[in-house]
Amino acid sequence: MADVKITTRKNGPFRVEAPEGSVTLVDADGTEYNLTGKTAFSLCRCGGSVNKPFCDGTHSKIGFQAAEAAVKAADSAAINPPGGSPAKG
Questions:
Q1: Which of 11, 15, 22, 6 lies closest to 43 in space, CA to CA?
Q2: CA distance 40 to 71
Q3: What's the domain count of the chain?
Q4: Mean residue pLDDT across the chain
Q5: How far is CA 42 from each of CA 16, 18, 52, 68, 88, rounded to the nearest angstrom?
Q6: CA–CA dist 45, 9 (Å, integer)
Q7: DSSP state letter for 75
Q8: Contacts of 34 (CB under 8 A, 6+ apart)
Q9: pLDDT given at position 87
Q10: Pairing status of strand 5-8 against strand 40-43
Q11: Among 2, 7, 65, 66, which residue has the fewest nearby CB atoms (within 10 Å)?
Q12: Whole-structure pTM value
């Protein structure tokens, strides 16, 4: 079995690294993307790429904040709201 590594980049794409031919990427209509010659590629997480499903760097231009970072920020704000008392739950 080939080793496939998927890395979540902080506030960026999913980075996929795998031996050539070991990954198949298929769209919602069942059409397969040509990954010939690719041993690494990045998949968009922000939704802004014009080259979906691949990342084109748009996340850095639009200030994309990954869900895990957004949740931590929201949790922190709920616990320590600016100018107020902590939320009760």
A1: 15
A2: 29
A3: 1
A4: 86
A5: 6, 12, 10, 18, 41
A6: 10
A7: H
A8: none
A9: 53
A10: unpaired
A11: 2
A12: 0.71
Q: Does residue 89 fall inside a structural domain?
A: no
Judging by beta carbons within 10 Å of its beta carbon (0-12, 13-18, 19+), is residue 42 exposed, middle or buried? Answer: buried
Quote the CA–CA distance of 88 and 79 in Å, as a whole number: 8
- Residue type (1 letter), 54: F
- Give the structural domain span for 34: 5-79
Tens of pLDDT, residues 5-50: 999 998 999 999 999 999 999 999 999 999 999 999 999 999 999 9
Judge whether 67 lies within some domain. yes
Tokens of 60: 């850095």
Residue 69 is assigned to a structural domain of this protein: yes
Contact between residue 67 and residue 73 where contact means Cβ atoms under 8 Å apart = no
